[in-house]
TrEMBL record:
InterPro entries per record: TM_pro_TauE-like (IPR002781), TSUP (IPR052017)
Transmembrane region(s): 44-62, 74-93, 99-116, 136-154, 160-180, 201-225, 231-249
Topology of this chain in the membrane: Multi-pass membrane protein
Record keywords: Cell membrane, Membrane, Transmembrane, Transmembrane helix, Transport
Pfam family for this entry, one: TauE
Localization annotation: Cell membrane
Name used for this protein in its record: Probable membrane transporter protein
Superkingdom in the source lineage: Bacteria
UniProt main location, coarse: membrane
Family membership noted in the UniProt record: Belongs to the 4-toluene sulfonate uptake permease (TSUP) (TC 2.A.102) family.
Species per Swiss-Prot/TrEMBL record: Pedobacter boryungensis
Length: 254
């Protein structure tokens, strides 16, 4: 158990660091936990990783909140929608075949990577493309979709949220990362409420992982705020590319 715990804590630290900058930490943490604890049900793994994810995201959100001004109307719309559908997604884990969803996500990710790479100004400057009312409606709409995805599958949620806040709502990378952390807190909490109520949380692993995820998130958020939009853009591309490889493996090779 000690060896398993050490490996899980290292994965949690790395996940927290990545997640604080551009999201997508779950792409490392969830597969690592599945690999290290193969004898537990998938639902128990999903429930367990929600605790470190929630802890790390909360710390990152706090760090961002001290330097970023939040658009609370847009944020609340997205948070409420995402929280509700994340509960539904967690409930649906055992009823929906992930193999149907993953090819669609793979295509979307490739398009995101190409657009971000060729559009050098993507997320570098904030611009308001819509009225506040339209921003609120769009935030709620995409919150519904991404919240459901986080409850159902999870990995990559932070990156998808950042993409929506930049490409759809007109935020820059720093602002998008800050807002995404708050929404991701809500989706993690909703899924955790469901998994814990059904006995699918391994607390002996989840609590130590949470401490290391917090540590990684602290350093990741600090680095992101120090380096700014251009650094986050590069990091975002790296994480999206890694996400593409992960989903391509699942879709094409498994």
């Amino acid at each position: 158990m000690i060896q398993e715990l050490i490996l899980l804590c290292l994965a949690a630290f790395a996940a927290g660091f990545i997640d604080a900058i551009v999201g997508g930490g779950g792409l490392l943490q969830t597969p690592a936990t599945l690999l290290i604890l193969p004898h537990y049900p998938v639902a128990s793994i999903f429930g367990t990783v929600k605790i470190p994810s929630l802890a790390g995201t909360t710390v990152a959100a706090y760090k961002y909140s001290k330097q970023v001004k939040f658009n609370y109307k847009v944020l609340i719309s997205c948070v409420v929608a995402a929280f509700c559908t994340s509960l539904l997604g967690a409930y649906s884990v055992s009823m929906i075949n992930n193999a149907v969803i993953k090819p669609v996500i793979l295509v979307v990710l490739i398009a995101v990577a190409l657009y971000t790479y060729f559009n050098k100004q993507f997320g570098i400057h904030q611009h308001k493309a819509h009225s506040l009312q339209k921003q609120i409606l769009l935030a709620g709409f995409f919150g519904l979709i991404i919240g459901f995805y986080d409850g159902l599958i999870g990995p990559g949620t932070g990156s998808f949220l950042i993409l929506v806040f930049i490409a759809v709502l007109g935020f820059d990378f720093v602002g998008a990362s800050a807002h995404a952390k708050i929404v991701n807190m809500a989706t993690n909490l909703a899924a955790l409420l469901y998994f814990s109520s059904t006995g699918h949380v391994l607390y002996q692993y989840a609590i130590p992982m949470a401490l290391f995820n917090i540590l990684g998130s602290f350093f990741g958020a600090k680095l992101a705020l120090l380096k700014g939009n251009k650094f986050i853009r590069i990091f975002f591309l790296i994480v999206v590319f890694g996400t593409i490889l992960r989903f391509a493996w699942d879709v094409l090779l498994k």
